[in-house]
Amino acid sequence: VNGPSANDLDDRLHRASEAARAATFDLPVPPLEQVQRRVRRTVAVRAFAGAAAVLLAVLGVTAVLRGGTTTQPPADATTTTTAIVDDWAQGWVVLSESPRVVQAHQATPAEPPLDGYDEVVLSTIDGAHPGRRRGDRRLHG
Amino acid sequence: MNDDRPLPRVESFDAFYAAGYRSAVALAYVLVGSGAAAEDLAQDAFLTAYRQWDRIRDYDDPRAWVRRVLVNRATSALRRRGAEFRALTRLGGKSDSAVGDIEPADEAVWEEVRRLPRRQAQAVALHYVDQLSVDEVAAVLGCSAGTVKTHLSRARERLGRALQDHEVTS
To answer: Is the ipTM above a cut-off of 0.90?
Structure first.
């Protein structure tokens, strides 16, 4: 199947761009003070969500450990990034972006070991991204 | 923008912010697909600029600095919080935003742009939505003009195929 010609595609991109710009023509510009208040509020909410995520992550790891399916996490196997906790026991990764995306996955033995701690397994609790994605965030370096 | 035209020196952050806010939201919108998220990203980028304004105001083009912050945050936010953004969009994420409606045919273009590799999507958004020249896009992305041309060329190839598929299946 042939795609649109280069000119047609260029025209379509220009039209879509004009539409995107037009969609913001009447957009009110919020006062900077209002923006600052919103950002402060967001930071506070994220901090709260981060704390909740830490709790859920700890509960998740505890549940995993109690299940006897893993061993104790290595001594250096915990790292924390900005308002986000990444915590794992051996073979497990718990990634917390927000309370909605806290989930633990078991890394299969065939997968690369986590000794580099530079890859995470990401999944959403609503199953939008079941399974795992590697290298979504660099935890080190 | 024209390469030959000297950029005005920006003295007032308020003027800089007022002049660039809407276009920044448009740029963010095509990258994340949510009006509310786009407004947040644009505001965050300008607030970051405000906090460093004493330094940024002396740059040749402070707007490019804001654009760089914006596109980097937009694409990383989309990757990290893609499910959230998509959920917002599904649930009518524009309802809490004043960003206007976009025709489905135009929105389809941006949906495909958002599926492009990060740099290609950024190059397309900056070149078409922000109407930056290849050299200006290169300055924002911190790469060469040749690299931008490659990104744009590959993006057009992919978009051509994707939009054709989109029309065949719809």
So the answer is: no
Measured between alpha carbons, how far is B23 from B12 in angstroms, rounded to an integer? Answer: 18
Report the C-alpha gap between B26 and A22 in whole angstroms: 8
With CA atoms as reference, report the closest residue to A22 among B45, B107, B93: B107
pTM greater than 0.80 = no
The closest of B53, B80, B86 to A82, measured between CA atoms, is B80
Do A2 and B156 form a contact (C-beta atoms < 8 A)? no
| Interface residue B168 vs chain A (CB under 8 A) | yes
Lowest mean pLDDT of A53-62, B47-56, B129-138, name the range.
A53-62
Burial of A115 (0-12, 13-18, 19+ CB in 10 A): exposed
Dihedral, CA of residue A106, residue A110, residue A115 and residue A121, to nearest 10: -40
User: Which site among B31, B39, B116 would you substitute to test the A interface, given the most A Cβ atoms closer than 10 Å to its Cβ?
Assistant: B39
Rounded CA-CA distance A13/B106 in Å is 8
Give the integer Cα–Cα distance in Å for B48 and B27: 17
Contact in structure between B79 and B115 (CB atoms under 8 Å): no
Question: Using CA atoms, how far apart are residues B32 and A92, in angstroms rounded to an integer?
Answer: 31
* Closest residue in chain B to residue A16, using alpha carbons only: B106
Cβ separation of A27 and B164 shorter than 8 Å? no
Q: Where are any strands of DSSP class E within A1-141?
A: 78-81, 84-87, 92-95, 103-106
Maximum CA extent, chain B = 53
Nearest to B20 by CA among A42, A37, A24, A34: A24
Neighbours of A16 (CB within 10 A): 24
Radius of gyration of chain B (CA): 16
Q: What is the tens place of the pLDDT at every residue in A71-119?
A: 333 333 333 222 222 333 333 334 433 333 333 333 333 333 333 333 3
